[in-house]
Structures are given as structure tokens and as C-alpha cells.
Amino acid sequence: MAKVTVRSVHPSWKGANNGMERTSTFQLTALIILFQIGSTSLFLLASDADRDAWMATLIAMIAGLALLAFVTLPIQHMEPRKNLVEILKSYLGRYVGTALAFTYILYFCYKSVRNVREYGDLMIIYMLPNTPLFAIMLILVLLSGYAVYQGVEVFFRLTEILLPIILLIYITLIIMLTSSELMDLSRLQPMLEKGIKPVVKAAIPGVISFPFGEMVVFLMLWSFYNGERPMSKVSILSYAFSGLFILITNISIISSLGPLSTVSTMPFMLGTSYLQITELIERMDPFVALLLFAGVFVKQTTYFLAAVLTASTLFKVKRRVMILPIGAVIYIGSFLFQSHMAQVWIGFKYNLKYHFPIFQIAIPILLLLIMHMKKHRMRERL
Amino acid sequence: MTTAIPKQLKVALNWINSELGNSPDTVTRMFTPSGTDSVSVGVVYIEGLVSMDTVNGRIIHTLMDAPDLGDQKPLNCDGYFRFLKEKVVSVGRIAELSTSEEMLTALLDGYTVLLIDGCTSALAAQTPGGAKRSVEEPSSQTVIRGPKEGFTEDLGTNISLIRRKIKSSKLRFVQFKIGQVTQTDVVVSYIEDIANAKIVDEIQKRLESIDTDSILESGYIEEFIQDRTFTPFPTLLNMERPDSIVGGILEGQIAILVDGTPFVLLAPVTFNRFFQSSEDYYQRFDIASFLRIIRYGSFFVSMLLPSLYIAISTFHQEMLPTTLLISLAAQREGTPFPALVEAFIMELTFEVLREAGVRMPRAIGSAISIVGALVIGQAAVQAGLVSAAMVIVVSFTAISNFVIPSLSMATASRLIRFGMMILGGTFGLFGIMSGLMFLLIHMAGLRSFGIPFLLPISPVSVKNLKDVFIRVPKWAMTTRPRLISDPQSSRRQAPGQKPAPPDADHATGGESE
Asked: Which of A3, A14, A28, A127 to probe by mutation at the B interface, max B CB count within 10 Å?
């Protein structure tokens, strides 16, 4: 039985692209996990909640899970072979649907821009202080563009290779942090010093928007799924796994850095920079920076790919035609921020609270309601 | 365009001679066999292509001594033709020819052509011969344990080497003639029901579509049929060892044998296949797995070590332990060039030395190693041109390169190395990481005859992982690699063959009684 599925996953014998791109169960799992982990370890999520940040993360994760299970996935389930643009167009009419789809292109591009810029800045701060930012970002965008050029299937396959490597390194780092004297769980005490309110406030909508609500991008990718297991189950389990992973990272950051974690720009990097492997490797942070590379790369490419898919479906052109314009938008867009701090600040102060929830929560919920209403009316007519 | 064979023997022989340009190695002979006075027979062959023993002993001698026709004469043309074919010429493979062109082809293939005066058809007898190398130990892929025979330049010998290892009626050899001028024989070999029929068809289709004047080596075929040209990675495997090829055929791969070269192609291949040596299966599985991991490591060292050295010593010195950093800094102090330039000079020098070592007449070979070791190793360091650490890096890189069993994959890592060095010298570890990511995307998109190049890793296939990074014991490999072989015949051997000592009381039973 397994044989049949493997063959159906790769029906194209003659080349990478013959319009039959399909992804398997493990590939979807790998992408969701990598996408969710992405750049989260760059920041201390929910740092507003101080040492209770991990609780805020947990709350956001559960809220995100609900969003995924009751909003995003049901949308896909009602139209399993359509992507977001097609769903928007068929349920909201040509004009509203097109307009909304267009805003999603901008949203995906902007998300990609943030990742490109974040990693570019990280590189300049930690590894290559004398290298111009434009060169680093150009390499990042070109790499992503190349991955998108190779197609959906290749990108999914890429995540499949990256996942075991990245998880292995992360787990090693976390074990090292735990076993070293850096970590001290008593730094999590006292819990809920100021009550539950600031925790919830930090979680919603901040941490939902980043990273847990970002699953909305999969509305562009789920339609490629062709695995053996049910899609919702795979998505929810992968999501839960990555959520727990983020939670553990969060706890290890707080408990090893204490109050320092909320003031540091890149707390995970700071924590690992105190690590030493028996005098052999003195500084681990270049490795961590490279580890983040893979996560950020996957995230920025997913958004790049989603933007290209959206644009090509919307304008009814070939996918490869849209790579150059979208790539250019992302590259130019990444220069819009004044500095790294400005970028982070805009992100956490405005985007996470006011802008991203529109795309991640509001539109999907509205869309789902309209879909239900239309379906209902159709059934009544019959 | 066909022309009939001229009726008159003399005309026919003259035509052959003039078509072949009165070549001195063409032998045309006319004689009258015993027992007949009226019929004259012509024998034509090309000297270096036939075995003289066969021609003289089995054809000319028997013709001369042909049994008396007795009362059967006078025979007409057809009758005599059949008489020759059935009673006289004692050679295994015989063909009847009806056109002049067929005659020429047969001659050039090493057949001996028999013509009868007054007949419009000719007889071709296979009399293979000519100079050929005997089966020797392969020069490029040596093993300690395992068969020592290697393929030769002779297609027939190579086929027999495979046939002798697989005594199955399902073993197939499909012949093609490729090359308008060279008319090279190319044979596709696979096992029916084990090889994937789709891939067999695809390979045959690609071979048939080749339109070129010459095929001199399997490399020609490789360039015509590979899935993608612009890639540093080979998507076909070439091997000189029959046991490796047979191993591949048994896993469902398809071999392409080309006349005139000992290098046989194997397709479709995946990345991990380039790190398997046939010896892995003859040694104990633990050491085989260990060596295989060493090989993967060496591939990365060969690809990345110089660039890592450049990147860390130029951009990320903080990663090094203090003492190492100080000693490196002390070495680098006296050297005039930046690390990137230094590494480039050394790597290029090594490539020159290596190429010289291959091209040099063997007699002067030892000279080059002395020059290389002394000049590049010691003198350059003493003169303060390069740092000692760089010499160590370059030499270790070079040695690692030789660990990779497949030469074509080793070459790939050599080329990639230079790109990585530039990336490492300009963007440090970030550059190297980007380069690796680029390669990974590229490889994830590569296919070999439709099979994803990184197969058991991506798309992941846990069952196929038994023979990738490690080699599990033979009894545990119950299935053939999926996707490559025919989906209907994935079973390789019966499960549960793990050997174990006999039951305790049963074993000691004999002694106690």
C-alpha cells in the first residue's frame, strides 16, 4: 500500500514541473515545523510579560491552535482543491475577492521583507560588521528566488532535508544550555507576580500574530497536499510540536538569562554565546546564527512562494513570470526600515497588534462565515 | 538506399575493395572449392577484426576440403548456397546478406563474408578476433576484498562478465548502434521485472534519439542522456567493476555498456550511490558503515575545508580557542597575501600538480612528487610565501578528495570548492551557508531519469535509509530501493534470516552424550 502512495507523490517522471506538484505528509510536517520555528528564537516572545513570557506564549499557542483548527483549516476543508485566491474570488465576488487577494500579496511580501531584513541585520550585528547590508540581503533574496523558481515540490523537499538537521542542532543547544550552569529554573519564580492580565495582554494579539497566527499562509500551500494522512491532523500535530518547541526555547532563554532576556536584542544568541565546549569552541554564536539562517530562510521563502503563487493565480500568469517582480518588491521593501531597532519596534508595536491580525484572524473568520452562509443558502435552494 | 550484390563474383569483390578504398587490411580471396570445378567462391574479411585461426581453420580450410558433392551436382546457386551454409562453414553465428551495404557493415563488424559466383546473396560468418586487452584488475576502482576483475574495452567480454554473475533468464541485453560514422555498439542491460519498466523505456528512448557522428566513450552517451547539463553533480554513475554494476542491476538500476571503453554507466542514480563502494558489501557491516560515514565527511571536507579556514581566519576569529588563534596569527603575520588569495594560489598549484601527475609519462612520475612535496610544502612555507596552516589545510583537502569512491563526484567537490572559497572569503560563514543552501536547493531539484536525486533523504523514505549513511547487515535488507526498482518486485530476500547459534541444549547435546 505504501508503494502506491510513494508513486503517486512523484508522478512526474520527466521533469520537475509538469503541473502535477504534490507534497507528502512528512514534507508538510517539515515545512510547518520549520516555518513556525523560523525566526522565533531571535526574540523573546511576549517579552512584555517579563518572566511570565512563557505562559503568554502558551496561551497564544493555544489560541493559535484554536484559530488553526476552527478557522483556517475549515476554510481549506470546504474547498480542498482551491487556494486562497480562488476561494476569495469564488465566495466574495470578483472585485472584493481580487482586492483582498491583492492585499494578501502585499501582506506576504511584507512578511518576507521582515524576515530578510531581520536576518540581514543579525548578520551585520553578529558576524559581518563590515559587510554592506544590501549585499547580504541580495544574497538572501536571490536564494529564496532560486528556491521559488525550482517550484513548490522542490521547496517542500528542501524542508524535508533541513528539518532533521535543524532540530538536531537546536536540541543539542538546548541540552547544552540545560546541562551548563547557565540555566536556573528558579528564575521563572515568582509566577504571575502582577496577575494574569499582563500575561494575556502580551499574548493576545501579539504572540498570536507572530508566530502562531501565521499559519494563514498555508491556505496557499495546503492545496498541494497529497499525503496519506488527513491534512488537518498532520497540520495540527506539526503545529503543536513546533509550539511546544518554541515554548521550551522560551523557557530556556528566560531561565538562563533571567531579567537580561527582556532587554537583550537577541536573547538566544546571548545565551548561547556563554556556552563553551571544553575550550575547543569558545563561541557558539556564529553557529547559532547559521542555525537561524535555515529557519529564517524557510520562513522568508514560504512567504515569497506564497506571494508568487497568489500573484500568479490572481493575474493568471505563469508562476516564473512573477518571481522577478515579487523578488524586486521584497528586496526594495527591505530597505524601508531605518534600522534594525526601527524594524523590530514597528513590528512589535504596530504590525503585531493592528495590522497582522487583520490578515491572520479577521479576514479568515469573515471568509469562513461567508462561506458557511453561501453553502447554507445553496443547500436551502436545493 | 540499397544496392543488390553484383551477380559476378569479380565485380562484387572489386566493388567491396573500391568502397573500402583499397585498404591494405581488406583481404579478398577467390578460389574454387574441391569437388566442384565450375563454382568459384570469394572470401572477404578485414584482417585486424577477425580471428585468423577461425577464418583459416573453419572457413577456408573446410571450403578447400569440402566434401564431394557427389551425385547432387550440378547445383544451382541457391542449392550451393544452402550447401555451404549447412554443411561446410563451421561457425556458430551466420547471417544471410542480400544487399551490398549489409555486406560492408558485416565486414566492418568483424564478420567474414562469403560470396558465390552467380549468386545475389552472400553469407556472413562471425569470426570475431583482433587485438584486445584481457580482463585485468580495474585501475580506477580498487578494493582489498572482492573480485579483482574489471571491464575491458571489448563489449562482448563485458557482457559475458555480467552474464556470468547473473545466471538468470530475466537478464536482458538490448543493443543499439549509435554514431553515424563510428557505428558504436551500445548495450542496455537490466533485469526484467526488477528494473522499472518506465525507466527502461525512458533510457531506450533517450538513446534512440541520439544523433551524432561518433561515440568513443561512455562519457559521450552520458552527456547526451543526462537529465541536466548545468550541474556540477553527475546524474549517471560510471564504473569499471563488474560486481558494482551487477549490484546496481540487481537493485533495479540499468547499465549502459559502450563498446570500446571499460567504463559502464549505471542509471538512475541517487546522491548516496556515489558514496557506496562494492567493498561495503563484502566487509562486515559495522566497518562498512563507519567507512561510509568517513566518506561523506571527506566529501564535505573536500568541498568546504579551505573555505571554512578562510572564513574563520578572516571573519570569525572569535570562534577559535585563544592558543590556536595566537599560533595562527603568528603564522599569518609573515605571509604577504590575504587568506583567500593564499588559498587560491595553493589550491590552483595543487590542481596543476595533480593534472601533471596524470599526464606525465610514468617514468618521470616520481620527480613530480618530489618537486610538489618540497617546493610547495616546505620551501613555500620557509620562504614566507604561505603559512604552514594553509599547507596543512590544502593537503588534507586533497587527500579527502581521494576518499570519495566515484571520481565524478570527487570532481564535483573540487569545482564547488573554488566557489565556496570565494563565498567564504567575501561573506564568511554566511557565504558558505548560502552556498550550501544553494547546493541543497539545486540538488533537491535534480532528477536522474525521473528519480529525485536526493531520494532516500528527500523525499524521505525510511525503508531506503538502510543503505545510505550506514549499511545494515545483509539479512536486514529485505527490500530493494523503492522507486528505482519495479514497484511490483520490492522483495529482495526473505525476512527473519538473522543468524543465531542453535539452542543451547541442542548444541551441547552432541558433546555430553
From this structure: A127
CB contact under 8 A, A154 and B445: yes
A105/chain B closest Cα distance in angstroms: 24
How far is A294 from chain B, CA to nearest CA, in Å?
A: 8
Number of structural domains found in chain A? 1
Q: What is the domain extent for residue A289?
A: 23-364
Which run of H or E residues covers position B446? none
| SS3 readout for B482-501 | CCCECCCCCECCCCCCCCCC
Kindly state whether residue A153 falls inside one of the protein's structural domains. yes
Q: Is A11 within the bounds of a domain?
A: no
**pLDDT of B313 above 80:** yes
Residues of A in contact with B199 (CB under 8 A): 13
* CB atoms A146 and B428 under 8 Å: no
- Beta partners for B190? B172
- Residue A192 included in any domain: yes
Cβ neighbours of A14 in B, within 8 Å: 202, 450
Whether the per-residue pLDDT at B36 is higher than 70: the answer is no
A208 within domain boundaries: yes
Q: Which residues of A touch B436 (CB under 8 A)?
A: none
Q: Are A114 and A344 in contact (CB under 8 A)?
A: no
Name the phi and psi angles at B110, rounded to 5. Answer: 95, 20
pLDDT (tens digit per residue) in A50-99: 788 888 999 999 999 999 999 999 999 998 889 999 999 999 988 999 99
CATH number of the domain where residue A35 is located: 1.20.1740.10
Q: If phi over 0 gives left and psi between -120 and 50 gives alpha, with beta otherwise, what is residue B197? A: alpha
Please state, rounded to an integer, the average pLDDT across all residues of chain B: 87
3-state secondary structure of A33: helix
pLDDT single digits (tens) B129-176: 888 889 999 988 888 899 999 999 999 999 999 999 999 999 999 999
Cα dihedral B190, B191, B195, B201, rounded to 10, equals: 50
Q: What is the ipTM of this complex?
A: 0.90
- Interface residue ranges in chain B relative to chain A, Cβ cutoff 8 Å: 198-199, 202, 227, 315-316, 318-322, 427-431, 433-434, 437-438, 440-442, 444-445, 447, 449-450, 452, 454, 457-461, 482-483, 487, 490
d(CA B317, CA B335): 17
Locate the chain A residue with the closest alpha carbon to B430.
A290
For B429, the closest of A13, A290, A297 (CB atoms) is A290
- In 3D space, the residue among B74, B77, B24 whose CA is nearest the CA of residue B46 turns out to be B24
Q: Which residues of A touch B459 (CB under 8 A)?
A: 6, 9-10, 24, 26-27, 157, 160
Contact B433 A136 (CB under 8 A): no
